[in-house]
Amino acid sequence: MRGTLQGSLLDVADEITIGPLGGAVERNELSRGAWVDVRTHWVSGADELFARLVERVPWRAERRRMYERMVDVPRLLCSYREGEELPDATLATARERLGEHYRDELGEPFSSVGMCLYRDGRDSVAWHGDTFGRGRTEDTIVAILSLGAPRTLALRPVGGGTVRRFEVGHGDLLVMGGSCQRTWEHAVPKTARAVGPRISAQFRPRGVG
Ligand SMILES: O=C(O)CCC(=O)C(=O)O
Ligand SMILES: [Fe+2]
Fold first, then answer.
1. Which domains does the chain have, with CATH numbers?
2. ipTM of the complex in this document
3. Mutate which of 165, 188, 204 to test ligand 1's pocket (most atoms within 8 Å of Cβ)?
């Protein structure tokens, strides 16, 4: 009985598949040795993956100290360290595929998976580099899978300069590499547009945060 029920549920669910990276990734050179790779529509069946992650990830609201005050972090969070079971096998497969594709450039596997849930356009992440760790001093790679409502991922050189904007949509992959975490900053700005929820999964090598 149980088997039949599960089987029929699987039939109606979209199949989740991850497309190839080789030949499908578009590289955007920034300045100072930073780059951004984009692979649109990397994951298909993204509705199903989004629905699973909304439900399975133990999303947490956090508060952080900012200028002597405690403020709400404007997004929900959850992070999976190396060795921790991921909320869906698709993420494990994605991490492996990324590791294979970037093996020569990165020289090490991706390990942790950080997750953000932007509930609507008021949720955001402020300008920052992923510099809690080796990203502060070394070139590295941070790969981001986007699901749900399209949002802008903006980048600007540290110290100021022209802002580059990438629209990241449902199932898209955006990868920041080279010196990007040290010499550029990134943000997902708030938007006044009526946008639905977005999930991002960030794949990082060990010691990069
Ligand atoms: O949600 C995103 O695409 C970016 C998240 C991010 O920059 C971070 O968590 O460090
Ligand atoms: Fe970041």
1. 15-205 (2.60.120.590)
2. 0.99
3. 188
| Strand order through the sheet with 110-118 | 26-29, 34-39, 173-178, 142-148, 198-205, 110-118, 69-80, 60-66
Residue type, 206: R
Residue 14 alpha carbon to ligand 2 centre in Å: 30
Torsion over CA: 98, 201, 149, 125 (sign): negative
Q: With bands split at pLDDT 50, 70 and 90, how would you rate the model's confidence at 174?
A: very high
Which pLDDT value is given to residue 14? 74
pLDDT, mean over the chain: 94
pTM of the model: 0.93
179 lines ligand 1 (CB under 6 A): no
